[in-house]
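Tokens for chain A. Residues wanted.
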């Protein structure tokens, strides 16, 4: 597959991943909302950074065309 097609497909995959991640995190908002505010902040910051790890293989595929390094 040529790089232009991989870029478009990969972009939609990353957007889908972010949307799914947001839905998953939001589904726990009731339980997280009951926690102290500082703990909530830590959890939401961690969740906001954690989506990067499942996105790495997608980014690698966009650039190289392979899923693994």
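Reply:
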């Amino acid at each position: 597959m040529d790089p232009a097609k991989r870029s478009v497909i990969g972009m939609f995959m990353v957007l889908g991943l972010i949307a799914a991640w947001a839905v998953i995190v939001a589904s726990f908002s009731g339980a997280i909302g009951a926690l102290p505010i500082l703990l909530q902040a830590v959890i939401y910051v961690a969740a906001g950074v954690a989506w990067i790890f499942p996105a790495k293989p997608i980014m690698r595929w966009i650039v190289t065309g392979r899923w693994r390094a």
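The helical segments are 3-27, 29-33, 37-50, 52-64. The chain has a mean pLDDT of 94.
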